[in-house]
Amino acid sequence: MTSSRRAALTTQRRLGAGSVIGQGARAGYREVAELEGEPHVVRRDLVGDTSPEAVASQRAIIAIGHLTDLHVADVQSPARFEFINREWLDPRFRDLLTMQRPHEALTMHAIDAMVRTLNAIESAPVTGAPLELVAMTGDAIDNTQRNELANFLALLDGGMVEPDSGAPGYEGVQATGWPDDLSWKPDGAADGDVFRRELGFPEVPGLLDRALQSFEAVGLRRPWLGCYGNHEEVCQGMGVVTSALAKAMIGSSKPIALPPGLDPETAVATFIERPEFFMSGESLDVTPDAKRRPISRTEFVEALYASGPHGFTDQNRREGTAYYVHDTPAVRFITLDTVCAAGDALGSIDAPQLHWLERRLEEAHASFRSRDGSTVRTRNRDRLVVVLSHHGFDTLTNARCEQRNEQLLGLLLRFQNVVLWLNGHIHANRITPRPDPQGGHGFWEVTTCSVIDWPCQARLVELFDAGEDLLAIACTMVDHEGTTRATDGEPPDLAGLHRELAGNVPLNGFDSWRPGTPTDRNAILLLPSPF
Computed from CA positions of residues 184, 185, 191, 193, in that sequence, does the dihedral angle turn out positive or negative? Predict the structure, then answer.
């Protein structure tokens, strides 16, 4: 069953693989179909089986939206290395993938559709509370470029979105005349590229020209909080932006092949330390664009502060930091900066930020467990704490920076009002209980999938009093309003086509691990009331 528009909440209907509508030599291309909805699953990992069978909201505390990993991309940038996808079978290049997606030219339209969907949600499904804010946990942009940042802000704040760069019109790897069959060419011949020939991807004449047209975005109608991700800091989320790379990013030379002399055994380290080396092989001339210049952490903070401030403060601007506190009447949100400036996609957190975090946690507790295990009492008012960051516990393992994920986890577990840690980075849905080995309350870590990759969703998060001395966190996945295929066979709109293409990407689509299990999606997470 398919229809032109659908309900956003996946408790009512969810999306998955539908009928095969195109056939390649190795696989069929499937439409997106509407499937039976997923009710909330109650998870009692942190309270045992003695809790009530039925869980209902006694009092709503807060409802928010969670967006992450949008990857607003300049798909024509010289500093994108799509040819590395050719090495996808070589494990020595695995950490550098994926360098190009068949649907990425449509991503800004998918983000705009998700923003409009969140705007249309008047109340959260479990408590009925209005959405108070939206948390955006990093990788807003794809390649640390100024024009990408400008488009991201237009999408979330409202304004003119300008997907095109360089000269007017598409100039990149998906163009029919580009000398490579590695990328999907929507205007090309049926046997002209791997995606059409092997996987049955469709012909969509004029798609790239339509996708690159400027459009006015409505922007979120609720406050939103920003967060720094690795793709804001380093090239393609991995490589340090050297002076040579910064010059090449705004230049006219586009690499199309691995450089001669590259040692595959050290390819990842070379890309992290000297990404400009990957621009020294065979290349094509493209139109330069000064708006592609790289940004810094300070510029990212300044840009969001000027337009928001989206959580960032004067202190962030003065000190060049990207971690902060945002207080609501009932909940303290603490946003961390987990990006390693030395490169690589994995995250880290240093000692000064941990010290800052400890002070901010103390401010939200009337009592807490000290480092030696004793109870410390304060004159502070108790409030719930939600931590926001790009990386989660399992990906705070960057060997190029300080590895303090265990220290961070131990710190959070000492403060019983910490109930939730929201993050992204892995482009997948995952919910993990974090119990306290010393018998304390523990908390829930909730990782939300990306908008750019299947299943292209956001998440609603509600905190509520569930009675019986229980606090509950309701998680509900949200699909954007992009169309599926109508019953008369008409193709989806640009946002809907983005999702359909994403679902058909090998290893990352319909049949991949990214949607998570049902307990990682629509779930009610219980824990003891901390106060």
Answer: negative
